[in-house]
Design brief:
This protein is an alpha/beta fold. The chain has twelve helices and eleven strands.
């Protein structure tokens, strides 16, 4: 049902009917069986979302995607150990589009597997090229790649990862796959076979956004993972409240022999507290912004 009210949605019978029809159309787009009230902002946002979805369908073919890299450092903030691979989309029509805007569209439209495979292949090829550098030793550098729960639920995903690693000459230990905590827990049963296959290959798994909810705590001992990334919302509480929560999270992970990564570090105090609490690695804008390949290469050489 589309709902329009006078005078907020229109001042004439025709404008009210058009607004109600627009709201009803949006209700159908969102999956039917619902009531949507008309608002010009909501309708404009829905139209923008649909235009983005159309543009996204051809973005890969038009080579509009690129990769940037966000470094991980030790808690001294000096030694670069790993780099998180981040997907960027620049659209000629929409400009730079945030991942928070286009990733959900890719998932709902069924394109996330194809896009995720592109990211994985390009990241592995990039690291393989770096390893040809006669000056810098890249063999100890690791790339972490975000993976959707939908990819983990694909029965062929582990075989795909194995094939790409073999073709690019990378060791499985050079690649970490990250999956968001909530996504994994919601689809745990379907994801476990792929997770176990990947662990058997030697690929490491990190649980991203850990602590955003508490749903995974009961499952944590059963998960075939190697690391947890503490959600930035918890990290950013350091200094404004006591550190009981983050201390408990780190202690729990350490008891399970998991590496701990603090994400979203923005202040010296956060960095100091994470080091004091035993966090292994950190990433955040205090230490480095996402950067293109050439800038990352210079960072590694400096380290």
């Amino acid at each position: 049902i589309g709902l329009a009210t006078f005078p907020e949605s229109g001042s004439t019978a025709r404008s009210l009917m058009l607004a109600a029809e627009s709201a009803a159309k949006e209700a159908r787009t969102q999956g039917r069986n619902r009531i949507i009230s008309y608002s010009s902002e909501a309708v404009a946002a829905a139209k923008h979302s649909r235009r983005l979805e159309v543009a996204l369908g051809s973005a890969m073919r038009r080579e509009e995607f690129s990769l940037t890299f966000l470094p991980y450092f030790d808690t001294a903030g000096k030694q670069l150990h790993m780099s998180e691979v981040l997907l960027r989309w620049w659209s000629p029509e929409h400009g730079a589009v945030r991942p928070a805007d286009f990733i959900p569209l890719a998932e709902s439209a069924g394109w996330i597997n194809a896009i995720g495979e592109w990211v994985f292949v390009e990241a592995c090829r990039e690291l393989s090229r770096w390893m040809q550098d006669p000056v810098t030793d890249w063999t100890r550098h690791t790339l972490t790649i975000n993976v959707s729960a939908l990819q983990f639920r694909d029965d062929n995903f582990a075989d795909f990862v194995h094939r790409v690693l073999r073709e690019t000459g990378l060791k499985p230990s050079q690649i970490w796959l990250e999956i968001a905590e909530n996504s994994l827990v919601q689809h745990l049963e379907e994801s476990l076979p792929s997770l176990q296959k990947l662990r058997d290959l030697g690929v490491k798994i990190a649980l991203d956004d850990f602590g955003r909810g508490n749903s995974s705590l009961a499952y944590l001992p059963e998960l075939p993972i190697d690391a947890v990334k503490i959600d930035r919302a918890i990290v950013n509480q350091i200094g404004s409240s006591n550190n009981t929560v983050i201390s408990a999270v780190i202690k729990l992970a350490k008891r399970m022999d998991l590496l701990v990564i603090g994400e979203g570090v923005e202040t010296r105090r956060e960095l100091s507290e994470l080091k004091e609490l035993g966090c292994d690695y950190v990433q955040g804008y205090l230490l480095a912004m996402p950067m293109p390949r050439k800038e990352l290469l210079r960072s590694v050489i400096r380290n």
